[in-house]
Amino acid sequence: MPQLHGPAAARGTGEARASLSAAGREMRIDRVEVRRVTLPLRHPFETSVGRTATKRFLLVSVSADGVTGHAECVADTDPFYLPETNDTALHVLRDFLVPMAFPLEIGHPREVLPALARVRGHEMAKAALEMAVFETWARREGVPLWRVLGGRGGEIQAGVSIGLQEDEAALLDRVEAEVAAGYRRVKVKIKPGRDVGLVAAVRARFPRLPLMVDANSAYTLADADRLAGLDRFSLTMIEQPLGWDDIVDHAALQRRLATPLCLDESIRSGEDARRALDLGACRVVNVKVGRVGGFSGALAVHDACVARGAPVWCGGMLESGIGRLANVHLQTLPGFTLPGDTSASARYFEEDLVDPPVVVSPAGTIAVPEAPGIGHAILWPRVERATDLHETWKRP
Ligand code: OSB
Ligand code: MG
To answer: Which of 231, 245, 256 is nearest to 123 (CA)?
Structure first.
């Protein structure tokens, strides 16, 4: 396992966050807008739960003090990854979260998620609103998002997630192309019947590649022997093999595997991360801001992992550049010692919504923006063309 940053790094994070929260003026939200955006994916993305050919998501915009910030909701059209959908997110935002947010006098964006706690679950809807407040805050202060998060400038390491392919040859071609493009680690989707053989083929061709697999909850504990068959390929980890809401069976499985387990779906808060790590359900955590209620949830997961010496890395949800850049800023925190699933815009979209698009260097890195907020311009004419629903709510 990679080395983690020591206590000094963790202390630096805390100081940066504390000094920023002390500096700010309170903020009240004047207006919230939601757009539903549809973007064609360049290639369909297939996992054990299904196939996505078009990306459809809510774009949430928050206005305060004459500044507007934006965030992408990671809910999908279907509830096959986690229970939320675009329609549930729209309902919960319109009828509950936005009305709860209007009266808030926000001293720091980290106060938003706790203020929404009366609504149980609906982490993706909460995250979209909370992240838009963070972006508005950063823009108002004239600083890049990473400063508000307590991160750092520079660059992050890029990794790549490869969906299920037509056959083994197609998968090997894809891995080859991504390694040639510079990506520092490759994640491959698996499902029952397309696991050990497929990993054996990739490993035979790329003996030293940092390689991992993601099952998106396609197995049960009855498959433990089969999953133990993956131990001989020195994978960096196996992501979410068992139930989407399970940690108990994962703990039992981890006891039978040499390969570290990583949880994705099962971790929906910092508390979930603490419980899973303390139970031994995983040794690594994939954090997605949208899955844990927003940046404050992601910071809580990060801190729980750092405190326990467990690596944390940033997952992805096939985001447009708006959500992708939010992930870039998050990954500048010291606990992110592993490349995540943040790859170039061009892998997903012919035309992204940000200018410049997110690009990966030949060395497999992504530059961290220095401009305010997410740090790249949003291409509004493109957004408007891709929008088929637009609602605006004003503070009463
Ligand atoms: O399980 O990490 C996952 C995409 C959609 C839903 C769930 C997952 C994924 C990915 C792709 O693995 C991550 C990305 O490239 O954005
Ligand atoms: Mg996953």
So the answer is: 245
